[in-house]
Amino acid sequence: MLARVKETRVNNAYEKLKTDILSGELAPGFQAPEPEIAARLEMSRTPVREALIRLEAEGLVSLIPRRGAKVLSIQLQDLIEVMEILAALEGLAASTLARLENKADVLAELECASTAALLAREQNDLNGWVDQDDCFHRIIAKHSNARLEREIGLNLDQIHRAVRVLARMNGVPVEADADHRALIDAISGGNENAASEIAQAHRLNALQALKSVFERSGVSQL
After folding, report:
1. Among 28, 114, 149, 168, fewest CB within 10 Å belongs to which?
2. Considering the entire predicted model, what is its pTM?
């Protein structure tokens, strides 16, 4: 019982900190000692410490001896590497979904996320669009296999903040909604090659757009 309670507290601390980091509430460069972070969460230090260790393993924070934890930024080269990895992994995941015999559930989930993203864009809700776009990609990962879901999820976490900031700077790419539609159609039709190619091209085209924003803005990290 005590072990279960401890695990729950660690998970709660982890989820709260991760949400604050990905949303930008704890911005890149934010640094605080563990007691201050624990006080912020109204928790004891032990579960917060273990949560921070998990976040460090995922590349979201850095633990600095005697100085606490620092939220890491993402540099352009990091973004390039992560997006190229996602292109390969999501291409594989999309082709896996196209092979499924019973895919009514996944198609319904993808349609829901795609529609929500489109609505958010039409309402100029940039944060909403980023969240729904992220959801769309996590649905593809979730229905592929557990290993792909884990690896895609970790890489999506790495770029989430950057995509949010860059969407505010450059607006939502209209072509993203068309890509989502084409990908849903390829998966629905069982076209493995098309699904893989669309997923990869979607991610690599997004990378080129993000690189352009970096270059125009003159920033080197987010």
Report:
1. 168
2. 0.86
